[in-house]
What does this fold into?
Amino acid sequence: DYVSPLPIFFDGLLERTEPFATMAFQGLQDLLNAARGKQPSLLAPCIPTIIMPIKRCLNTKDNTIMCRAINMLLLLIRCDMSVGELLVPYYRQLLPVMSLFRGNNKNLGDGIEYGQRKRENMGDLVAETLELFERTGGEDAFINIKYMIPTYESCMVP
It folds into this structure.
């Protein structure tokens, strides 16, 4: 039964002090990986309850917290692909903040951005999330993403 612990762990991503931040991140990662491939889905019934904690994490506009939340959102979808379609009605709550950080890439010329290794590059994470939303969200996903982020272009081949 994931309905009660999953929102608590997503809320824990707001934590900045150690070891609480690591415990919330690692605990959530373990929960999601344990639910991978289970039938019936353990994650699908939790979607309405985890939207508000994810939205709170994104609304902090703190790079570390947002990166952790987006990474866990990506892991959530990858652990159970059916969750992608269940998230479509909640795009209006999740995407406005992501649209602010969509172009947040560093222009280093020929330099190297080492945040890629830790998956802390916000622009790349947002782009990856939008693409995964579109791929797993069904036929209405692109329309909803385009409504919230007008400059978004489809990653699907026509």
